[in-house]
Specification:
- By secondary structure, this protein is of the alpha+beta class.
- It folds into three domains: 79 residues, conserved putative lor/sdh protein from methanococcus maripaludis s2 fold (Beta Barrel), CATH 2.40.420; 149 residues, OB fold (Dihydrolipoamide Acetyltransferase, E2P) (Beta Barrel); 213 residues, no CATH class.
- 52% of the residues lie in helices and 20% in strands.
- The chain has eight helices and 24 strands.
- It has a six-stranded antiparallel β-sheet, with no helix packed on it. Strands 2, 18, 19, 20 and 23 form a five-stranded antiparallel β-sheet that branches. Strands 4-11-9-6 form a four-stranded antiparallel β-sheet, with no helix packed on it.
- Strand 18 and strand 19 form a beta hairpin.
- The protein is elongated, with a radius of gyration of 55 Å.
- The two termini are 55 Å apart.
- The N terminus is likely disordered.
Amino acid sequence: MKKIILILLLSILILSWCSDDKWVEVLEKKDFYIDVKKIWDFDNIAYLNKTWKIDSTQNITLNSNANGRVKSILVKNWENVLEWQLLAVLEDNLANYNLNLEVAENALDASKNALDVTKNNLSVSENNLEKARLNYESTKLKLDKSIGDIERSLNNLNTEDETTSTSIEINKIDNSISRLNLEYDNLIMSNDETLSSFKRSLEKEITVLNNYLSDIIYFSDEILWVTELNKNKNNSYEIYLWAKDSAQKLQSESLLKNLISEKDTKISSLKIEILSEDDYKKYTKIIDESYNLINDFLTSFDNTLSNTVPSVWAISEAQISWYKAQISWYKATYNWYKSSFLWLSNSIYSFLETYKNSQNSLLKQIENLEKDKSIYLKSLDLNKTTSKSTLDEAISNRDLTLKNLDLVIKDAEVAIVDSQTRVRDAEIRVRDSEINYKKALNEAEKLFIKSPISWIIWNILIDRWQEIFSWTPAFNILSEWSKEVTISFNKDELDYVSEWSKAYYTNELKTFTWTIYSITKSADENLKYQAKVTMPNEASNIWNILNLNIPITLEHKLLPVNIVKINSFWMWSINYYSTWWTIEKTDVKVGKVYGDEIELLWENDPEIRVILNYVDNFDSEKFILKVKE
């Protein structure tokens, strides 16, 4: 019983709620599917529909479509010919078809070039407008900033107030002068310390060099015996020292004497106390020359030992090898000492070249800052009297400049409108030129008489060099199964068709391809241009009246007529699926209607996704918009 009562209460609550609009809100929204297609995915192929009665014939008279002289006949009577085979060529001596084609082609190229120029001019105008707007904004910002700077400078010229920029600037100059003086004092101390360091390094280098020279001289004199201390000591092996090259031995003795003299007269007597810049350079030069003498001697002495002949009783092979090993050790030591000295020497020369300049540069900076301070204080008085007039002039110039820049923007906008008009005119001229070129091309094609189908030449009705005119019978063509249809075109339709254009007939079984093989040059009394169309052999069983569809290529895209509607402002419009996932409308321009399709003249955005199905019943409160895959 309790369950029944509970169920009844729930039912009453549900029914009362269902009577309210809130029930609709809880219903799940249904999917609303739309078919969309981008504008650029539509084609631009329309069809001219022609209805006519089939004529049965066994021979077709193929007429000339142009005025001219027969230049060549390329077939003979009873010759089998194929479809599209060239039968005769006319010489253009009356209507100037080829000349007209060349003129039309040149006119088309010229109109396209003119269109490119106008589009480029439009782009230039658009860039000029963008530049003018940017220039206006940037100039306004600059001028406003300049005026603000002048106003602030007027407030900052008070030197008594320590918070003003003028007082702060003077304090900065004073601080900079104090900082540079401190830097100068520190630099002097640092340079003195560096010179003292160089002095200690030179003393160490002289000591090392003096000991090094002593070792080399002692070792070498034991062998060469050039001093009184070792005189005649090498008599027992002297002849072997120069056995291979006596001049080499004499050179080594001479270099050793020079080395001894260098040590005794220069190196040993060097005393470093208080040094000037010239003293540093002089001592480094003496040390460098000594190292050069050592190198020359060691090289020469090594060569002397290499020219020595070993002797068991005088000087053995082992002694020579030991001497040479000792020289190699001296050379290795030389390389180490010399590289260490070169680093010191380069450091000394580099420092001597720059340290005075560094000191003078700091002194010059201090002097310039003091001058700047004096000039700055003098300029403050002048600024106080001129800043006010400068501010008034800046405000006036800003207003005048912005007014002129605004005129430049308006001129650029007018130029864009003018350029857009010129582009539209140029586009129209290009379309007209394209139509004229197609006409001229069709006219030039009339100079070539071709077979519309694979048949037999029954009779040739023209002679070579014969003057003939449009519609003059040229060939009789024989065929057992051929049929033809006569159709007509108005003058506007002739812009899209020509000889050898294709026409299509479709029945419930298949589609047949027909060929237009001649079009009259003159209109009949109904202002129609007659054309002959041949049917293929496999369509020989088709009789009576039929509908032919002739495809033509348009400049613009074709949309289904049912999706283009007239709105309340008597403008054509279409529905499209926006990037915000909603259905939107936009106005469009349309052209002619071809069957169930209409020409779209507006194609500014080929990415627009046009909605193909009926959507007037769409309600966002009831449906979820979805695109069919």
